[in-house]
Amino acid sequence: MSTTPIAAHIEGQPLTTTLTQQNSPDLLRSHVDQRIARIRPASTPLDQISRMVGWRKTGSMKVDYYSIDSKPATAAISDDIKAGQHDRTKPLTISTDHNEYFAETDTILFKGINIGTTPLVGYVTAATDAGLSVLPLTQGDSASFLLPHIPEGTTIIRMGRAAGELDVQTSQYNLIPRKDFNYCQIFKAQVEESTLQRLADKEVGWTFSDQEESAIVDMRLGIEKSFLFGTRCRVSRPGAEDVYTTGGIWTQAGQDLTYPQGTITNEKLTELMQKAFTGGAGSPRKVLIGGSDLMSALMGLDFTRNVMGTDKKVVWGIDFDCITSKFGTLYVKHSEIFDLCGMSGCGMVIDPEYITKYSHIPFSADRISFHKQGLRNTEATVLTEASCLILRYPNAHVRITAESPSNNS
After folding, report:
1. Architecture, CATH, for domain 24-70+178-409
2. How many Cβ atoms sit within 10 Å of the Cβ of residue 254?
3. What percentage of residues in the chain have a pLDDT greater than 70?
4. 175 in Cβ contact with 66 (< 8 Å)
5. Which long-range contacts (CB under 8 A, 24 or more apart) does 304-313 make?
């Protein structure tokens, strides 16, 4: 009976980084990423964060993944319900734009609708794709009450379920993850100069010549653009292998916010904070990256007691400005990528806890001797990485776009 060894056993020779790379090529990966991340981290905040928060190995260029959102809690009524006396034992039949969000035994709040000073709350006695049967809940013992006017478009908010004393079961909560995929893109940079120093823990440091460092910076800028705005595609080349391009996270985000170009009010910033941090949307600390016009608009704000511009904070090797509110804290950083891509008025709120980087080919530096090949008297270093980014929780991330003045008139 044969057994598969769970580890490589090295005998008769010292353990070196070469042997480590041969037998466990990903073991030194984290250390390599941290070295790369020291090179101009502020220029590529998204790539920087993805390297610092960790990555996952994928066995192919195509990455299948599942993303989920929390069950939405609001819907809008499609009918106009007239005011009048109502028998408290008879349920209302209402239809909404998303009947599937609700289930039997849910309690719901009619936003902005009151009976006297008490908000109107209903109890869902039945729920189908066609509509909801809702029993209004009122205080007092009278057989009927005055039902207020509930206009079309009124928002209803799903609250806690209410069970009876003898109830053992309740309606099932079903949430099916949405399957999607992305392609890893092979990013490369070539430096035809001296040999790149071996990536090893035993070395005092990992140093670059000016040319090599410039190649790393240019490579990371290219990766940053693709991670943000790339298009997922498989390109067939005649007589050659296929080329994969990765899809950016800009199109993966689940929420949107628009603002008048050049101007952000305190009310609009509060709306952004609310959208980014409420509705079960991830962690209480998120990152806002954006172009120079968006940053200029934020700099023009007079912060209030509720939304404050606080001190700087260094996270993942990047200096962030902080905007703090009762909803959460935004780490703000200007991204030159938005400017270079013609989107200086745009930005994106990202939740680092719900960004996953997949690597098919971890970052590597390979030496090519063109002198030995008889091509030319040089040696080159080729830097390679095949990777992609995905958002596991789309509603935790927000696209920010500026409306032109003509669209606001």
Report:
1. Alpha-Beta Complex (3.90)
2. 15
3. 74
4. no
5. 304/266, 306/270, 307/266, 307/269, 307/270, 307/273
